[in-house]
Design goal:
The protein has helices at 15-37, 39-45, 55-78, 80-100, 104-131, 138-189, 191-195, 201-205, 212-242, 247-269, 277-294, 301-333, 335-364, 366-409. With 410 residues, the chain is mainly α. It has two domains: 12-198, MFS general substrate transporter like domains (Growth Hormone, Chain: A); 210-410, Growth Hormone, Chain: A. Helix 6 (138-189) crosses helix 10 (247-269) and helix 9 (212-242) runs parallel beside helix 13. The chain is globular, with a radius of gyration of 21 Å.
Length: 410
């Protein structure tokens, strides 16, 4: 299906720009998704053993956390188009580096650069989308756009497995370089369109002091990242060892969530025009958390398939609304800064989920990992709703005060 067919009714001012960003995001995600699917095997071939296998992964996670805020600040100062260009160029340099990497130490350096590029890329892409979309279309635009991410993420292991079987890791890295080069060429061809509308100097110049609603969003994304990371780390182990599923069925289970999320994003993003954002975000997040809690009680292939499909659908429910709420906050406090801090908390959640999940697994067993993930998600939704209600009351009070003041003056 062509990208253009997905945009026939998209409410966005610049479809050419959206199409370019969609393809760039797909290519970058597919290329690095292919590499990440077999990264531990690649590092093993380079000679890493034991704890050293996790060092490049750890540096990558830390790099994304550390560079998220500086990337967001750079967007506010220099512009999203420039930061986006730097991130894509950095991705290209990393892809070239993989072609010539011969040691674990060099790969660690590449992973640090990859983490920095990832932090800058996601923040700048969201900023460009926010600057070139109408506020009423934030949810539908982000929902359609994220199909490029999750579609590529789901295709990565399949494409990577095919390439690696016939061409080894050299073939995988050549594919990565080609995809990054295609992204850079498309970016250069659409540079004029990407500039678009930037943040006003009044917004970008002031210090970042977000409101209660923003704190609710970062709380939600931290606990959501926690749950996703912990579940992703231990679900493969659970379905193969705990449920004794064969490799084929395990692969189907692991990809079904991404498939359902990819195809649910666009239609579910339209719900933002009919229901309150906070209710959509909380409902989707709570439903995914309940899916986590149900995993230990499921038996059989069909049962775990239903659970994972539900995780994908309900994840697609909250994702566009959450991104739309983030872009709305960005209009108040600066999109670059808002997205940068948001991504930092999300990446912190990813890191915490893996670490705490490992601890829980060692102390109590794998079933409790999913229970902790579900409880964390519900806690995040609760905090988000409490802060959202508090913000709503605060805004209502301000409106009443302004109304009273205007009547008094009259």
């Amino acid at each position: 299906m062509r990208v253009r067919s997905l945009l026939t009714d998209i409410d966005m001012e610049n479809r050419k720009l959206f199409t370019a960003l969609f393809i760039i995001n797909f290519c970058i995600t597919l290329g690095y998704g292919v590499v990440d699917s077999f990264f531990s095997l690649y590092v093993f071939e380079l000679g890493a053993r034991g704890a050293l296998l996790g060092v490049p992964l750890a540096f990558y996670s830390v790099s994304k956390i550390l560079f998220s805020v500086p990337a967001g600040s750079s967007i506010s100062r220099a512009g999203a188009d420039k930061v986006l260009a730097v991130s894509v160029i950095c991705f290209c340099c990393v892809s070239v580096g993989y072609l010539f990497a011969g040691s674990v130490a060099f790969v660690v350096v590449l992973r640090v650069l990859q983490g920095a590029a990832c932090a800058a890329f996601r923040a700048s892409v969201l900023a460009v989308l926010g600057h070139n979309s109408r506020k009423s279309a934030f949810a539908s635009v982000s929902g359609t756009f994220d199909m490029s991410f999750y579609g590529a993420l789901g295709a990565g292991p399949v494409v990577g497995g095919f390439i690696r079987k016939f061409a080894g890791f050299n073939g995988v890295f050549i594919l990565l370089f080609i995809l990054c080069l295609v992204s850079l060429i498309i970016l250069l061809l659409t540079t004029y369109d990407i500039k678009g509308r930037e943040e006003s100097s009044a917004v970008s110049g002031k210090s970042f002091k977000p409101g209660i609603q923003y704190y609710g969003l970062v709380s939600f994304i931290f606990f959501r990242g926690f749950g996703i990371s912990a579940c992703a780390a231990f679900l493969p182990l659970y379905i193969e060892q705990g449920m004794a599923l064969d490799s084929l069925r395990s692969g189907v289970v692991l990809c079904i969530s991404t498939v359902f999320m990819t195809f649910s994003l666009r239609p579910l993003s339209m719900l933002g025009k009919m229901f309150e954002q906070k209710n959509i975000i909380a409902s989707g997040g709570a439903a995914v958390s309940i899916m986590y809690l149900l995993i230990p009680g499921v038996s059989g292939f069909q049962g775990i398939m239903v659970i994972c499909a539900g995780m994908g659908v309900f994840g697609a429910l909250s994702q566009p609304a959450c991104t739309a709420a983030l872009l709305e906050e960005g209009e108040k406090y600066g999109t670059g800064k808002a997205v940068g801090v948001f991504n930092m908390f999300m990446n912190m959640g990813f890191a915490a989920g893996s670490l705490i999940g490992s601890f829980v697994y060692g102390m109590f067993g794998i079933e409790y990992v999913f229970i902790i993930s579900g409880m964390a998600g519900i806690a995040g939704c609760s905090v988000f709703l409490i802060l959202s209600e508090s913000n709503a009351k605060k805004e209502l009070t301000k409106i009443c005060e302004r109304s009273y003041a205007s009547k008094t003056e009259a």
